[in-house]
Amino acid sequence: MVMPSTNAVGTPAIEFTEEQKFIFDPRGWIALPGVLNDDEVVEMREFCYRLQREPESIPEPHRSSIGGPLERLTDHPAVLGFMNEFVASGYSNEECYGFRLEGTFLTIRAKGQDHFRPHGGRGMHNFPGNSHTYHMHPDKVHSGLTRVVWELNPVKKRGGGTMFLNGSHKAAFPPPKTTENRDCPLWEDYSCPAGSVLFFTEAITHSGARWEDDTADRVAIFNCYNVIGNKWHKWEPHPAHLAEMPFKRRTLFRPVYCQDNVPSVSDGV
Description:
The chain is of the alpha+beta class and 269 residues long. The chain contains 5 helices and 10 strands, in the order αβααβββββββββαα. It has helices at 18-27, 38-53, 77-86, 239-244, 247-250, and strands at 29-32, 100-109, 134-137, 140-143, 146-151, 163-165, 187-188, 196-201, 206-207, 218-226. The longest helix has 16 residues, at 38-53.
């Protein structure tokens, strides 16, 4: 099995360390601080506000949360490193990713806006057909449907970032009733500077939260990845935007099947 070592513009994958892999497996999520530089954050955040407030100012093919500068996030080196380790299961080579990007959305949330709605969990007990799965054996785990969140403004602890019930992706028991209260101490979240990235398995119990910062909105891109033979979300990129992408990036959006699904540049996508 050959995993691509670089992304579509030739930047090497950022491989997860042994410590990061150990953290992600029992918790079901991990945040990496300050992955984007200040210039990238400003450019991407400005695009997000245009997308929300002035979509007509953006060419139609790019009116999505992978449009314009946000396209670079789809196969960012940190994403490639994570997906190679936790999601890809073959069907890849140096010019073709072993995973798909199957959904995306933008969240801009001002102070007081709430989205507390716990869902997910117990992913080790889901049957095929439900992408919210988590599998493991010694020295290797597989996260089925996996969410990557790019935080384009700072997030404060208990300030409105995504909330998690640690370990619930492996849980034999359902969440206790106490977790229906957002103040239950079992809920965990994070703080991070602008430009950070959060990875979590959709097999974990998680929730949005009430944004508490009155100095800045939450501005976050939520991209969702899956194996190449499975799909959960009803979403596709604009075909004209797809046609503009480098070949390797286009393989993120190839058809959903396994047999011979390792396209090459000569084949197209």
